[in-house]
Amino acid sequence: MRWPLRALPLALVVVVAGCAQPAAPEPWTTSMAFGVLGATCEPDRLSALRDAGVTVVELPLAWDRFQPAPGEVDQDYAAQARDRLGACRDAGMRVVLAPGLHYPPPWVRELPGGTPRGSSGGRADGVDLVFSATVRDAAADYLARLASDVGFDGVSAVRVGTTSTGELGYPGPTAGGHEREYWASGPAAQSGAGLAEGLTASPLPGWVPGSPVWAGGDVTAEQVDGWFSWYADAPVEAVSWQLDRLRELGFTGRAHVPVAGRGVLPADRAEAVAGLLDGRADPDGALERGLDHPAAFAALAARPDADRIDIDFTGLDDVTAVRARAAGQDRCRPGDEDGLLERADVASWSAQRFTTALARRAGLGLVGENPGPPDAPHTGGAEDSDPLAEQLRLAPAYAVDCGLTTFLFAFEDDLFSGATGVDVADYADRIAASAGRE
User: Fold this and answer.
1) 58 lies in which domain range?
2) What residue ranges carry the coiled-coil annotation (predicted)?
3) Rounded-to-integer distance, Cα 115 and Cα 111, Å
4) Rg of the chain on CA atoms, in Å
5) Is 12 a member of any domain?
6) For residue 96, what is the enclosing H or E element?
C-alpha cells in the first residue's frame, strides 16, 4: 500500500545523542473512528473487530483479478467482491473501497504507453495512469464495470492514487533499476502522442533532469522550475480524473487520497531547482516521485467536491516520527499550519506533522494509517523503525494529535495471524483508551 521510504539522513532531524525515549502518550479521548486495512469481511473476523470497536474497513480489490482480459469480467471474482462488500456492510461497517488500479492486468501494461518510462531508460511496475490515454480508457472501462457489477451500495469512501502502491505520485527514484529516475519520458509525456486529455506535453521535451543544457543551449533555473511544476501537477490531475469518473458513475461518498511522506519541502525545492534537479536537496526521493504536497493539496481543495476529499497519510509513526521523537518534533501541535511554508524548522518535523498541517491548511479532511510491519515489503521500514506493537501503541495517539477523523490499522491479517506480537485484543485496548474506558 505504500512506497518504501529511503532512510533520511540524520542531518535532517535534530537528534540528541543519548536522549532517552519519551514516555508513552498520556491518555487521550476522541470520537475518532477506528478501522483496519486489508479487510477480508470474513464473519468471525468481522465479529471480533466489531466487538473491539472497529467501525471502518478498507476492502481491497484487484483490477487484474476482475478483468483478466480486454472486455472480459471474471464473474466469480465479481460475485466474491459483492459478497465481501455485502458482508462488511451488513455487519455495520463503513467500507472504504480500494478499486485496485495499482494491480493492473498484464494486457493493460502492453497497451501503447502502458508502462511508466524513466529518464534513465527504466520501466516501472504498474501502469502509466498519469500520461497514457489508452491506460486511462482501460481504467475508465474497469471503473464502469466495477460500478455495474459490484456497485457502491454501502461504500463510504473510495481510495484513489496513481502509483503501483496506490498512492499519489510517481514510482520511486530507483523503481526502474537506475538511480534518480524521473517518470515522464514516454512518447505521451514528451511529444503528446497518446497523451491523456487535460494534460500538456513536456515544456522541455528531451530534457533530462540534471542536465545543464536543453535544445542546444543552457537550461535556466526558471525553465526547470516550470518543468517540475508540470511534472508534479500531472499525477494530481490523474487523481482528479479518477474522481470525475467516479462521480459520473454515481459515487457520492468521500475520496481518500493516500499520501506518503512529507513531499518536497519548500526550501528543498528551491535548492533543487537551482541545481537543475541534479540530486541535491532530495533526501527521500520526493522530487522524482513528484510530491509537491502544497501545490497538490491546493489543487484538490479547488475541486467542487473538496468537502468530500480526505488526505490519507499512510505513515503515522514511520521512521521520520521515530527520529524526530527525541527532539520533541514528532507530534502535531495546534497552530502548526500557521505560516507553515515560511517556517525554517520544518525539516526537523516528522512527516506526519508537516503533511497533516498542510492538509489542514488547505481545508481538506484527514485520515491515516500506520506503516505496517517494518520488515514487510513497501512499508518504508528501516533499522530504527518502530515494531508493529509500538506502532499500535503510538500511531492512534498521533492520529488524534494531528486531527484525523479515522485511523486505519495496517493490516487486518496482522491482528489475526498470531505471528506479529499484536492481536485484536490489543487493538480493542487502544480503542477503549480513546473512549476513556480504561
Assistant:
1) 32-434
2) none
3) 8
4) 21
5) no
6) strand 94-98
CA distance 139 to 108: 9
159 touches 58 (CB < 8 A): yes
CATH number at residue 112: 3.20.20.80
* Beta carbons within 10 angstroms of residue 20's beta carbon: 7
Q: How many CB atoms lie within 10 A of CB 197?
A: 8
Between helix 221-248 and helix 293-301 the angle, nearest 10°, is 40
Contact 183, 251 (CB under 8 A): no
Identify whether 76 is part of a domain.
yes
Task: Please indicate, yes or no, if residue 6 is contained in any of the structural domains.
Answer: no
What is the DSSP code string of 65-84?
Answer: HH-SSTT---HHHHHHHHHH
| Alpha carbon 191 to its chain's center | 29
Q: How many C-beta atoms lie closer than 10 Å to residue 26's C-beta?
A: 6
**Using CA atoms, how far apart are residues 244 and 247, in angstroms rounded to an integer?**
5
Question: Does a structural domain hold residue 228?
Answer: yes
- In the numeric block, the cell 530504527 is attached to 384
DSSP string, 220-253: PHHHHHHHHHHHHHHHHHHHHHHHHHHHHTT--S
Q: What is the pTM assigned to this prediction? A: 0.92
Q: Which residues contact 237 (CB under 8 A, 6 or more apart)?
A: 130, 198, 199, 299
> What stretches of 249-372 show up as alpha helix (H) in DSSP?
266-274, 293-301, 319-325, 351-362
Q: DSSP class of residue 304?
A: T
Q: What is the mean pLDDT of each run of 10 residues along the chain (438 residues)?
A: 36 34 44 96 98 98 98 97 98 98 97 95 94 98 98 98 96 91 97 97 98 97 98 98 98 98 96 98 96 98 98 97 96 96 95 98 98 80 88 96 97 96 97 71
CA atoms within 13 A on the CB side of 435: 11
